[in-house]
Amino acid sequence: MSNRYGMEIRAAGAQEAAGLSELLAQVGISLPPHEVAQRLEAIRQSTGTALVALAWGPPSGVVVVHWHRTLLSPAPQAGISLLLVAPDERRRGIGRLLLKAAAQAARTAGCDTLDMAVSGDQPDLDAFCLANGFTGAGLRYRRPLRKGG
Fold first, then answer.
1. Both ends of the chain: CA-CA distance in Å?
2. Using CA atoms, how far apart are residues 43 and 140, in angstroms rounded to an integer?
3. Can you give the residue ranges of the N-acetyltransferase domain (predicted)?
4. CATH number, residue 104
5. How far is the C-alpha of 47 from the C-alpha of 66, rounded, in Å?
6. Is the residue at 140 inside a domain?
7. Considering all CA atoms of the chain, what is the largest pairwise distance in Å, rounded to the nearest integer?
8. 42-71 burial by CB neighbour count: b if 16+ within 10 A, else e?
9. Could you give the 3-state DSSP secondary structure of residue 69?
10. What is the 3-state secondary structure (H, E, C) of 97-127?
11. Gap between the Cα atoms of 9 and 119, Å rounded
12. Domain assignment of residue 136, yes or no
């Protein structure tokens, strides 16, 4: 999927692993390219997708969306587990394009809602979510499933 701005949004593959590793490092997440490639493959084989924004060179951004069934809804529910745009590429519409592509992937999977958890005090991300049609839906709690986690 491409758009009029010359930015291509497409499914992430192993060929993007090195660039995504660099993108993650820009925000303090250390993940070697071979692990990125393994995780991209695992996402591809599950109920979800990873999409990258590409113009020239390494990826400018990435979004990962998953969907699952629940007892309380007739349609699958979708959630964004990662939305990241390179710090020097922000405020250029890339996040909005990635969000639009993630929403389309979720609709294609039959989902009727899209959730995105926002951790901590991130007023820019809160504003982004509100500007893109999300509404506040409470807090999310997390519990480790293994000791020491």
1. 38
2. 22
3. 7-149
4. 3.40.630.30
5. 6
6. no
7. 49
8. ebeeeebbbbbbbbeeebbbbbbbbbeeee
9. coil
10. HHHHHHHHHHHHCCCCEEEECCCCCCHHHHH
11. 25
12. no
Per the confidence metrics, is the pTM higher than 0.70?
A: yes
Domain span at residue 98 reads 8-131
pLDDT tens string 9-39: 999 999 999 999 999 999 899 999 999 999 9
Two tokens at 116? 């995105």
Q: How many helices (H) and strands (E) does the chain have?
A: 4, 5
β pairing state of 61-68 and 48-54:
antiparallel
pLDDT tens digits along 99-146: 999 999 999 999 998 888 777 677 777 778 888 888 876 666 666 667
**Under a CB-based contact definition with an 8 Å cutoff, are residues 46 and 67 in contact?**
no
Residue 125's identity, in one-letter code, is: L
105 falls within a domain: yes
114 within domain boundaries: yes
Spell out where 3-112 has E strands. 8-11, 48-54, 61-68, 77-85
